[in-house]
């Protein structure tokens, strides 16, 4: 009877959680859908397919200037942008086929993936913390992260890649290993850097197996089982996807040649001493921040002293990004404390593995190997920061007040830097003598 009652309460709690997550996700999706047509292109698609491309007049935001012309060539049967896997671009192609060659076609399916990430991070948070409140707050923190919102609202590779990665990580925690590998394979087919997320899962699983198993043989047996089901499955999906693309477009003779081309291409992207690079520490340091990146900004001059920006897509630090090192330090501390107490630190270790492979790895890549790095690479680390800080600050009244202030800060950044401002809001900001 007691077991049935606990099961009923658990199902009821999960249903309530999903209802809240759906609500937050729909709010974010509505915001995303409202801004899709801004900016709208002035030039025809034919004028915006081959270089030189006027991104502003073509209505292309940030790296859309690379991907949308490539997608148009792919629609015409021409292999393009082979340095990246094809799945995100296939989603853009599908959107164009449904909604036309316009911003709705380019961005709608990518936008849906971005909104889905908000729902998925809530599920992932609950799988790690079993806390309803922490899971809802984690979803809200990610949903109202303005940089993540901007990146997942435009036609780039990152939004589908993260959505499939979060789904794969959630399925792994639910021990649905084959499905996890399939989803992570789709993530790799969207953007190859999601291999870092797969690596985080494998490291976490090895640590968990080492804690739970009695002998080295049992540890390796358990870990190899996960590698076979998750890693091999994802690699097979990647190879099959590349092979399908190569066959359809005649790009490469084998998917292995294509994969070799991708790896060689990215290994050559190095910077020199005179180049200006936003190093990884500047992504999370609130004192020495990287310069705010203008992805797409329209300026309207009011008079000689005052101007406003009806459209302004920025990449910047947010209050959530400032929590990175706090999360990192406390995760190490709590992980050590739990291990000494005979408890496995699920959340803390999962967080550390994710941060090591998706954030800290860029320090040696940038400083030692001189690989180009960009601040928007932190997009893959934002979800785990949201989950960890939501749980770490839960429980005590003082820390929960800090958590709600953090959520309020995220919301204020979201509203103030919202990329497409209505005129009444612009007028209100100008009336307050604030930059608009």
Gist of the model:
The protein is mainly alpha-helical. The protein has 19 helices and two strands.
What does this structure look like?
This protein is mainly alpha-helical and 436 residues long. It has one domain (35-431). The chain is built from 19 helices and two strands. Strands 1-2 form a two-stranded antiparallel ribbon. Helix 4 packs across helix 5 (103-129) and helix 5 (103-129) packs parallel to helix 17. The longest helix has 34 residues, at 2-35. The protein is globular and about 70 Å long.
List the helices and strands and how they pair.
Layout (H helix, E strand, L loop, with lengths): L1 H34 L19 H4 L5 H12 L11 H13 L3 H27 L2 H12 L2 H6 L6 H16 L3 H14 L4 H18 L3 H34 L5 H13 L13 H4 L8 E9 L5 E9 L8 H17 L5 H15 L1 H6 L14 H11 L4 H20 L6 H9 L5
Antiparallel strand pairs: 1-2
C-alpha end-to-end distance: 60 Å
In the predicted model, the low-confidence regions spanning at least 5 consecutive residues are none
Principal-axis shape equals globular
Main sheet: strands, sense, barrel: 2 strands, antiparallel
**Structurally, how many domains make up the residues?**
1
Number of strands: 2
Number of contiguous helices: 19
Strand/helix succession? HHHHHHHHHHHHHEEHHHHHH
What is the CA-atom radius of gyration, in angstroms?
A: 22 Å
- β content, as a range? under 5%
Average predicted local confidence, pLDDT: 94
The assigned structural class equals mainly alpha
The largest beta-sheet arranges its strands as: 1-2
């Amino acid at each position: 009877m007691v077991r049935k009652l606990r099961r009923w309460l658990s199902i009821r709690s999960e249903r309530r959680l999903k209802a809240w997550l759906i609500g937050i996700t729909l709010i974010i999706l509505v915001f995303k859908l409202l801004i899709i047509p801004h900016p709208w292109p002035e030039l025809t698609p034919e004028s915006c397919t081959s270089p030189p491309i006027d991104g502003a007049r073509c209505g292309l935001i940030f790296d859309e200037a690379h991907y949308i012309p490539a997608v148009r060539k792919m629609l015409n049967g021409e292999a393009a942008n082979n340095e990246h896997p094809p799945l995100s671009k296939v989603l853009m192609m599908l959107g164009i086929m449904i909604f036309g060659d316009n911003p709705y076609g380019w961005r709608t399916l990518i936008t849906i993936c971005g909104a889905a990430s908000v729902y998925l991070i809530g599920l992932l948070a609950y799988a790690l913390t079993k806390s309803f409140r922490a899971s809802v707050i984690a979803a809200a923190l990610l949903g109202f992260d303005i940089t993540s919102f901007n990146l997942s609202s435009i036609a780039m590779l990152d939004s589908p890649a993260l959505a499939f990665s979060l789904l794969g990580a959630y399925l792994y925690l639910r021990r649905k290993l084959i499905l996890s590998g399939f989803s992570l394979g789709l993530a790799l087919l969207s953007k190859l850097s999601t291999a870092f997320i797969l690596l985080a899962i494998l490291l976490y699983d090895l640590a968990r197996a080492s804690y739970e198993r009695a002998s080295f043989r049992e540890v390796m047996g358990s870990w190899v089982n996960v590698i076979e089901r998750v890693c091999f499955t994802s690699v097979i999906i990647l190879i099959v996807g590349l092979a399908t693309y190569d066959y359809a477009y005649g790009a490469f003779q084998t998917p292995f040649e294509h994969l070799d081309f991708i790896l060689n291409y990215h290994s050559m992207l190095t910077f020199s001493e005179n180049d200006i690079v936003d190093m990884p520490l500047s992504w999370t340091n609130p004192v020495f921040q990287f310069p705010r990146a203008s992805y797409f900004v329209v300026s309207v001059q009011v008079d000689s002293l005052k101007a406003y920006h009806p459209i302004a897509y920025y990449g910047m630090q947010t209050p959530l990004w400032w929590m990175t090192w706090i999360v990192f330090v406390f995760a190490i501390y709590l992980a050590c404390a739990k291990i000494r107490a005979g408890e496995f630190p699920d959340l803390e270790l999962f967080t550390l593995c994710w941060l090591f492979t998706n954030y800290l790895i860029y320090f040696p890549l940038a400083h030692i190997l001189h690989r180009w790095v960009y601040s928007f690479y932190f997009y893959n680390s934002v979800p785990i920061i949201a989950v960890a800080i939501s749980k770490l600050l839960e429980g005590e009244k003082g820390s929960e007040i800090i958590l709600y202030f953090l959520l309020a800060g995220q919301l204020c950044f979201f509203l103030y830097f919202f990329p497409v401002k209505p005129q009444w809001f612009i007028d209100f900001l100008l009336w307050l003598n604030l930059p608009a």
